[in-house]
Amino acid sequence: MDTKYIFITGGVASSLGKGIISASLGKLLQTRGYKITIQKFDPYINIDPGTLNPYEHGECYVTMDGMETDLDLGHYERFTGIQTTRDNSVTTGRIYMSVIERERRGNYLGKTIQVVPHITDEIKRRIQLNATKEHFDFVITEIGGTIGDIESQPFLEAIRQLRWELGPQRALNVHLTYVPYLAAAGELKTKPTQTSVKQLQGLGIQPEVLVLRTEHNLSDELRTKVAHFCNVEVDAVIQSQDLPSIYEVPINMQRQGLDAICLKKMGLDLGETLDLGPWQDFLSRRKSASAVVNIGLVGKYDLQDAYKSILESLAHAGTYNDHKVKTHFINSEHITRENVGEKLSGLAGVVICPGFGQRGIEGKIVAAEYTRTHDIPTFGICLGMQMMVIEFARNVLGYADANSSEMDETTPHNVIDIMEEQKTITQMGGTMRLGGYECALVEGSRTWEAYGRKTSIMERHRHRYEFNNRYLEEFEKNGMKCAGVNPSANLVEIVEIPALKWYIGTQFHPEYSSTVLHPHPLFMNFVATCIRNK
Ligand code: GLN
Hints:
Helix content: 25-40%
Number of helices: 18
Radius of gyration: 25 Å
Distance between the termini: 53 Å
Low-confidence stretches: none
Mean pLDDT: 95
Strand content: 15-25%
Strand order of the largest sheet: 13-12-14-15-22-21-20-17-18
Bound molecules: glutamine
Oligomer: single chain
Structural class: alpha/beta
């Protein structure tokens, strides 16, 4: 079968959950046996979100092949289990960059370079790029932002052209809009949806399917009205009501036939609608888990989306341990020696979060000291691991001035130091140690046990600093052990204190690899320990 393209656009407002709808549709098509991939095209000008502050754009997700991407790629992977690549995340910046580089090489042979056709051609090429490397039955492309945005225009023009070139059997548009409820009038309002579809039509794109985000149930009458105003069939007007969990969205979409309508429109046989099997089991287990385990998240970003993958990984592991994980965000900037007991003592476990820069690190160090000396299960991730190491150096090894050279370049005890190959780097974007690297686990370690005694694992990275091997022997002698090393560079990737219940820090980010059907073994083991520690 030739690759078919489904475009997901959004109108009326941002944050309607296009990413979740894209991931859900991908999941449903997979359930029918199709091979799919999902990609995100973001109209902003940054080359990638790697240099963006999490307050701007939430978490930066990292693919196995080392691309820093939008957090929606995390949803795609968690829902579908696919592994995305650098070609699944494209921004306006990357599009322009390749066009400009080509122009500088003289490849355009003296032509004037314009948005149409040069930028739009490059967008079209990128949309189809994944399918030139590997066969996919469906490529789902989510367009970031909303259709009215100035910077979205070239993307919509590219979609319009592609739909024309590929034809209706191979290209389809699903448009997500919002139906607000006006409490004073007691009414649901369809006008914003009508206007948004008109706007899309004005750009030459007739959506085949509409997904209406709403906080209230939409009547058949209302759906019919939308269908008539928007040139869409009634059964192609689907509602996406608020649900208790994002993981219920695929079930809701399947019930209303989102996948079925897409197949029908593209001329494919429907066949049997299979139930979601293990996914359904996950949901029932999630619903029946009533016992709660309280886990603290020590970080500096006071924003849910900044730690998206960690929250989801904890939730997956909670479900498979038949518990609800209740996370408590503790702002590390406000943690002091005086109040740390009050802030952390009631928790069954603590995650010390990743991050960059000075702000909030002293609080993380105080938290690491408290959980180490009170034997509270602790999971340090990336910067979190580095703070565990610094704390141990200061309070156990007695190096009061121990630090990371990220925070204090002149510290005499740089137990965390910049990696050799990072020293000469001056460009900040995309130059960290990024993506999957092998890690050889130390046999007999806690981490090795948690990974089911695997000798070698592959995990994703995003950092410039690293454990300083000069201190390794001293750490090990005093009880903090190295439990995993990168074999080619001999970098310490995992530290642990085996004498404690669970005190493990990883230089890598296991949270990027936990999926609904395959929770991550380290999170599973951590949450199980927290439950025993309640
Ligand atoms: N700032 C640290 C480093 O660059 C940790 C990065 C992170 O937590 N992702 O090494």
